[in-house]
Amino acid sequence: MEQPSKRRRILDAAVEIFSRYGFYNSKVSQVAKAAGVADGTIYLYFKNKEAILIQVFEDTMEELSSKQRMALDGLETATDKLRTFVRVHFEMVGRNPELAEVLTVELRQSGKFMRDADMRAFGRYLGIAARIVAEGQAAGEFSPDLRPRRVARMLFGAIDELSLEWAMSARRKLVEEAYSQTVRVFLNGLNRKE
Amino acid sequence: MEQPSKRRRILDAAVEIFSRYGFYNSKVSQVAKAAGVADGTIYLYFKNKEAILIQVFEDTMEELSSKQRMALDGLETATDKLRTFVRVHFEMVGRNPELAEVLTVELRQSGKFMRDADMRAFGRYLGIAARIVAEGQAAGEFSPDLRPRRVARMLFGAIDELSLEWAMSARRKLVEEAYSQTVRVFLNGLNRKE
Amino acid sequence: MEQPSKRRRILDAAVEIFSRYGFYNSKVSQVAKAAGVADGTIYLYFKNKEAILIQVFEDTMEELSSKQRMALDGLETATDKLRTFVRVHFEMVGRNPELAEVLTVELRQSGKFMRDADMRAFGRYLGIAARIVAEGQAAGEFSPDLRPRRVARMLFGAIDELSLEWAMSARRKLVEEAYSQTVRVFLNGLNRKE
Amino acid sequence: MEQPSKRRRILDAAVEIFSRYGFYNSKVSQVAKAAGVADGTIYLYFKNKEAILIQVFEDTMEELSSKQRMALDGLETATDKLRTFVRVHFEMVGRNPELAEVLTVELRQSGKFMRDADMRAFGRYLGIAARIVAEGQAAGEFSPDLRPRRVARMLFGAIDELSLEWAMSARRKLVEEAYSQTVRVFLNGLNRKE
DNA sequence: TATGAATGAGGTTTCATTCAT
DNA sequence: TATGAATGAAACCTCATTCAT
Fold first, then answer.
1. In this predicted model, what pLDDT tens digit does every residue of C64-100 receive, in sequence order?
2. Residues of D in contact with C164 (CB under 8 A)
3. What is the pTM (predicted TM-score) of this model?
4. What is the 3 state secondary structure string of chain A?
5. Which one of A142, B1, B12, D32 has the largest count of C-beta atoms within 10 Å of its C-beta?
């Protein structure tokens, strides 16, 4: 069969269900049904319900990180890189709004319940942005007195908030605008003042 | 007796419990116990568990809005106002990290389940920031080609993300830094480029 | 004040509420509200919720018995008496359908939970009908080989079933018909066959 | 396994428990225990507690109706049919007093809360008796000026009342007597007077 | 691997009853 | 007597998880 593996189907179904109802209001049986498997089958692939969420989160973060690294590869300036970072993130949101919603919401919700592994996946993603900032500072493009990690987090919060607004609204044309405005604010915000 | 009203005690207890365990992992009986009332008493003041969360959210948003309006009153420039807006928000977080955490996390979680009333409370808060941006544009302080509402949302996301990081970490000195860096990035980001 | 005593008001309110929602679906607070007293006041007059029902039942049975005795007093033949018994019962139903419904329904529902006292009140009412039958048999009006108590019960069941149908329907003109048909069937049924 | 289905076991257990404690005083967990299943299993077969009662009611009514139709099939006169109708009803009561009690009691209790479906099951049963009366009238056996439906209801009330008395007493020999006396009263009552 | 019927722990909520005023 | 806010026991029901097939 050339259809995705069961494990994959379960994860995809989970994204769909979790984004529609929220993690705590989703039932495992709903996910099973959406995945076209029996309830019990879920437990052959995941220890429990929470493990599905964790996996969705990690998978997505890693995929995003990977996409970012590929897109950033070869770019010269930090300015270009930051622009790209924001664009890639919004592209993911644009292509998969449900996934974005799950990420964004559950990242918070689960918060302190997240395992270290998950925080690390998130940390790696933030690290990409932080590195861009640091590079920009080293190259003299960005103000040197901002803490890269903090800026990265701020940037993520801004992007994420706009993503959520976008995912929850019906006006699907906002991505482009969200992208350009975020870039404008942050690039200006980070630019070295002479 | 000069102690707070039962209703108030329940709300305070809810913030404590919700922030510690998350809304869905909190039990009404825990809230009752923390409030020093019987389980049933909760239901004299709130229709159900969710109504407590909603109320916490609305109360806080209104209080924050009110604090902002007072702090902003009399300020001249949009630049000053934006700086103040960020400061007031972080001050609240600094004084009441648990409350901030509940707000920030549950705002997302409940997301689309939120009632109009709640979205409106949130919308009013955003409106304050949006108006500052618009005023700044009208006065020539800020770039005119940014959409105030979008910027307000971006700003909220950034602040909120830093708040969450801060609330969940033990290093309580970050507030001051978070404030100053946010202000720097956003003020520069919004400034009119000549 | 010339209004009814609180105790009376509570009983009347109970009849209204119990008939509308059924005993188990009625809340004490509803009864209190309908009676215009505080919840706690109920417990100054009745030991508990069930005691209200019991009292309603006993009161009504005694009142019915009393009405029957007055109506029957002076009548000569058992035939006349039986006719009157049926008429008086249906008159009560006609005047106070809610009361009838409570009686009829709760008599069954409470069934084995009823105290002896209540069964005795009911027994006394049945006794009136049974005595009529026995007198009719002694006078040669009715067949001698029917057990009066059994017939009384049968009669009560028949009347009661029609009452219930009537109380629950909107067609309030049936009482007269129910009366005449019941009398016809039972008088013929009891008549001595030669 | 040749033992009854779980669904069947639950219904049987419900009859036992409901008749012993009354519907509102019965706990779902009691029914589950009596049926030998877990509490949750009940909800795989019934939407909620009330649905069990409804099902018991409908099942029994249909079974009774079916029994009646089979017993009546082939009988010639309405007199014979009426006699049979009463006998079959009392036989059911004699074989399954608990079931009878649940029926009789809860039929009233639930009263106006009953769904149309249930009233229809009851209506069909009444219809059988009503048809007998109508046939008897058409054949000249019974007085033509009684309304069949009303008489059917009266008959049901009488039978039912005796059933209840019987179910609640310990003297289990009364069925035969109840049968013969009911038949006597009603047949005479309905007979055409010349 | 896959199923899905069965489990049973446990939470939210109701409401009869109490008691301080 | 009267109040009504407060109590807290208890029940219905849900649903994540298991396990016999």
1. 999 999 999 999 999 999 999 999 998 888 888 788 7
2. 108, 111
3. 0.89
4. CCCCCHHHHHHHHHHHHHHHHCCCCCCHHHHHHHHCCCHHHHHHHCCCHHHHHHHHHHHHHHHHHHHHHHHHCCCCCHHHHHHHHHHHHHHHHHHCHHHHHHHHHHHHHHHHHCCHHHHHHHHHHHHHHHHHHHHHHHCCCECCCCCHHHHHHHHHHHHHHHHHHHHHCCCCCHHHHHHHHHHHHHHHHHECCC
5. A142
B43 touches strand F (CB under 7 A): yes
The dihedral built from the CA positions of residue C91, C181, D183 and D161, taken in this order, carries a sign that is: negative
CB-based contact, B113 to chain A, within 8 Å? yes
Chain segment D57-111, per-residue pLDDT in tens: 888 889 999 999 999 999 999 999 999 999 999 888 888 878 877 777 776 666 5
Question: What token pair was written down for C94?
Answer: 């006609």
Tokens of A72: 């950033």
Token couple for B14:
């809810």
Q: Which residues of chain A have a CB within 8 Å of the CB of B171?
A: none
Q: Which residues pair with B142 in a beta bridge?
A: B191
> Do B19 and B99 contact (CB within 8 A), yes or no?
yes
Residue A187 token pair: 């690039």
- Report the alpha-carbon angle A41-A47-A48, nearest 5: 85
* Residue C133 at interface with chain D, using a CB cutoff of 8 Å: no
- Is the pLDDT reported for residue B186 higher than 80? no
Residue A1 CB-density burial (10 A; 0-12 exposed, 13-18 middle, 19+ buried): exposed
| Residue D7 to residue A70: CA distance in whole angstroms | 59
The pLDDT value recorded for residue C117 is 67
H, E, C per residue of D16-74: HHHHHHCCCCCCHHHHHHHHCCCHHHHHHHCCCHHHHHHHHHHHHHHHHHHHHHHHHCC
